[in-house]
Amino acid sequence: MRKLLFVSLYLFFVIIFSCTGSLEEIDYDKNTNPLTQDSWTQATASANWTARLGHSSIVFDNKIWVIGGVGSGDTCNNEVWYSGDGITWTQATSNAEWTIRCWHSSVVFDNKIWVIGGSQCGSPYKNDVWYSKDGITWTQATASANWTARDNHSSVVFNSKMWVIGGYSGGSKNDVWYSENGITWTQATSNAAWSIRNKHSSVVFDNKIWVIGGMATGAYICTNDVWYSENGITWTQATSNAAWSTRQCFPSVVFDNKIWIFGGGVSTGSNDVWYSSDGINWLTSRNGDWSTRSNHRSVIFDNRMWVIGGGDTAAIEYRNDVWYIY
Q: pLDDT of 189-219, one tens digit each?
C-alpha cells in the first residue's frame, strides 16, 4: 500500500512538473498576445532616401519599394527607391515619368508596380494611372481615369482587379472603383454603406476587401469602424467601434492570419499596434519601438512586418527610418 502511494505521488509530481515546464516553454502570454515580448529592430535610422511621409510602399521583385511622398518644406517628389534588406537603398529613378506627388496609392498587379492618383501636397488632385515593370521606366495607362481626381484613397488587388476606394478631393468620398487593366475603370458603387472618408486603410483578408478607420468629415473627425465586402458593392459593418481609438493616416497589413494596424492618430501620430483575427475583436500588442508617427507605410517582406518612414504633419516632422519585427 505504501509503495503504491509513493508511486502515485511520484507520478503526480512528475505530471505537475512536466505541465509547468511545458507552459513556460509555450509562453502562454506571447502566443495569445503576439509581440508582447518581441521588440522591433531598426534596419536603418536614416535611409538613403530623404525623410518623408505620404509615400507608397509595396513589395516587388523580392524588394521593398518607396515611391514618391512629401518631405521638408512640403516638397513632393517623384523618386523611386528599392531595397533587398531594408538597410541599403538604391535609387531606381530620381525623376519618374509621372509628376511629383504624395498621398497616392500603389499596388502590384500583372507583374507590374502601379501608381494611382494622389496630389501635389493637396492640389492639384490627380486621377492618372501609371505602371512599371522595373521601377525605372514608367508607362501611363490613363491620364484621366473614370473616377474623379483624388488623394488619400486606398487601393488593393482583389478578384484579379485593382480597386480604388474612397479618398479626398475637396471633400471625402465613399465610392468604389475597379479595373482589370488600369485603363478602363468601372464603378462598383457610388455610395458605399460606410460613411465618406479619406486617410483610411484597406487590406484583403479572408477573401474580402476591408475598409478600416479614417477621417470622415471635417478636420480631425476620425472613425474606428471596420467594414468588409465580398464584391466591392455590398458592404457589411464588422464593428462600429473597434477597441483602438479613432484615427487616420495609418497602414494596415495581413500577417499570421490577422489584420494588423500600426500607429496613426487624430491630430498627432502614435506607435500603438493592434491586430484582429476577424475584424471585430481587436487586441493590442506592445507599442512599437519606433517613435510615434502617421502617414507612414507598412509591408510584409521576408516574413516580417515593416514600418517605413512617415512623420507627424502637426509637428512638421519627417522620418526616413525603417523598422521590422519577426
A: 999 999 999 999 999 999 999 999 999 876 7
Which residues, 6+ apart, have CB-to-CB distance to 54 below 8 Å? Answer: 68, 69, 70, 102, 103, 295
Q: Please write down the long-range contacts of 275-284, taking CB distance under 8 Å and 24 or more positions apart.
A: 275/34, 276/226, 276/242, 278/238, 279/205, 279/206, 279/210, 279/226, 279/228, 279/238, 279/239, 280/226, 280/238, 280/239, 281/243, 282/239, 282/242, 282/243, 282/244, 283/33, 283/243, 284/243, 284/244
- What does the alpha-carbon distance between residue 143 and residue 164 come to, in Å, rounded to a whole number? 16
Lay out the sheet containing 154-158: strands in order across.
154-158, 161-168, 172-179, 186-189
User: What's residue 32's pLDDT?
Assistant: 52
Place of cell 471625402: 172
Read off the C-alpha cell for 247. Answer: 484615427
Class of domain 40-325: mainly beta
Sign of the Cα torsion 246, 252, 254, 255 reads negative
Cα–Cα distance measured from residue 250 to residue 80, given in angstroms and rounded to the nearest whole number: 21
In the block, cell 476606394 appears at 165
SS (H, E, C) 22-84: HHHHHCHHHHHCCCCCCCCEEEECCCCCCCEECCEEEEECCEEEEEEEEEHHHEEEEEEEEEC
pTM exceeds cut of 0.85? yes
Average pLDDT, the chain: 90
Neighbours of 32 (CB within 10 A): 10
Find residue 265's DSSP bridge partners: 248
Nearest to 283 by CA among 305, 260, 266: 260
What's the whole-number mean pLDDT along residues 56-77?
96
Q: Are 29 and 37 in contact (CB under 8 A)?
A: yes
